[in-house]
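As promised in the previous annual report, we have extended the structural survey to additional targets. Below is the entry for Alpha-galactosidase.
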Amino acid sequence: MTAAPGIWQPHDRAFEQPEEVRFEAAGVEFECSAAAVLTWTAAEPSPGVLELRVVPDRTADVRVAWRVPCVDATAFWAADGGEHRGLPPFWRRPRTAALEKNAPVGCLVGAGDVALCTYAAGEVVRPVRTRTGVVEETGEFGFWVEHEAEPDAGLVLRLDLTRRHFATTLAEVAGWWRALHGPAADVPRVARMPAYSTWYAMQQHVSAGSVERQAGPAAELGCEAIIVDDGWHSDDRGRGYGYVGEWEPSPTTFPDISGHVAKVRGAGLAYLLWYALPFVGRHTALWERVRGYTLAYKEHMNAAIVDPRYPHVRDLIAGHLTRAVTEWGMDGLKIDFIDQFAVEDPPEPGPEADCRTVNEGVRRLLAQLPRDCLVELRQPYVSPGLWPYATMVRASDCPLSPAHNRQRTVDLRLIAGPLAVHADMLMWHPDERPEHVATQLLNVLFAVPQISVDLTAQTPEQSEVLRFWLGFFREHAEVLQRGSFEPARPDLVYPQVTARSGDTVITARYAPMPVAVPAAGTLWLANGDASTDVLLRVPDSGTAHATILDCRGRTVTEGNLPLRPGIAQLDVPEGGLLRLTR
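The corresponding structure token record, generated without further manual editing, is:
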């Protein structure tokens, strides 16, 4: 492993009078640069895991670079990778992670789903810039990480070169972040139970009556929370945010917000309310009051992004959200658009500001929000610096796209640490087959489903699917969400995912790949693929009891099944479930 010349690209920002340090640790050569005198330490807390600290003698941007041979590499995993899992070229522009957006972590994945090199930075609030990719001249994979570092802390970096399963190395990164930065918020049980969301079902045409009509059916089917999205605060039904910021319930559609919340809670559901945190709309009475304290104006949104570096701005926003919990009886808040605070080249703060950076302003704002309530965040604001202020994090919007929902929830599970991971809301056409309703649910089996259809208009078959699979989510939540997590083949968008705890193994199959049968215990195999010829990879001889259910939970077949080493084949319906007990 070398740090060959040429790690900088022509459009990279150059340091003035840079100091450079080269050193080797655990067989890796590192090259560090800064406009300061640098010292470094390296520790190997376990074989193949390296922790570096590079310290400048004064506050300065510090960059650390290294390379590994690009041998047997199949994918590059990044927290903001979206749908792209190929190997990027090293010359592409750097990524930035900060409190408001992304997370400073990545993994070069090799054949067999092993981590060839997993890296993470310890800084989780201020911007961390990273460049990763294939170095064309040498066939290596290059990395550099850079951020402003203080002489009392430095740049802290963790590398995992153990060639273990990539999910294991990322889970350990999450544990490392938690050890560095202290405790997170408590995540109550309800955050891990199925929820109902109004967004795709109602869009902005939401009202107290429409919400209350869904509450009873949602609770009966197994949901434990309802999330009321955009539209509650205004009678405007146009897309955009020109009327957000004052956060008063619409007197037309929510004339008695406290009474309404009490009714929904009486049906057995926790209530979360949506807020677009950074926006104040052009058509609000607040506009003139805040326009001098903004970071940017978004023409297409018809709203400004307020500047959280000013205490009175933070007080204004926090006061609105606190009122929802303390006066209206809300159980939680859906906080949207934190990533919009990450504007390029923000204006210099004025004399009334009490912090220099927007990152710190956002952190102080979040610290002022109500505690001891449910708080939902969303991709791409996935920094571990947000863990103290949230209980759940949701996949970014992907309506009617099961594969994207699967990839995004799996990506979140890998680095979400203590937070409950929620799927993007599930919707389907009224004429959708029950098998396809089931596969939507199965694609997010290892997360918390949010249902967003009119539950009063579902066919009996669609309702049966919901009742059966939401019951499975609830019954097996501990294994599905908190068990050992093993997604396969990130380069193929996770065609198979497994969770295990004790003697229970749950595998979801999204492509015709063989599924390993454990030597003992119970295997639950959910078939999320259209093919029904399910192949089982059997390690040894024996007898198992097999039960096959269809997508509605009805028994198709049941009985003892002789097993021999090798491949066995069973017919499991699309959207159906196999229980195999040895």
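Residues 166-181 form the longest helix (16 residues). The first strand starts at residue 19 and ends at 25. These points will be discussed at the next consortium meeting with the crystallography subgroup.
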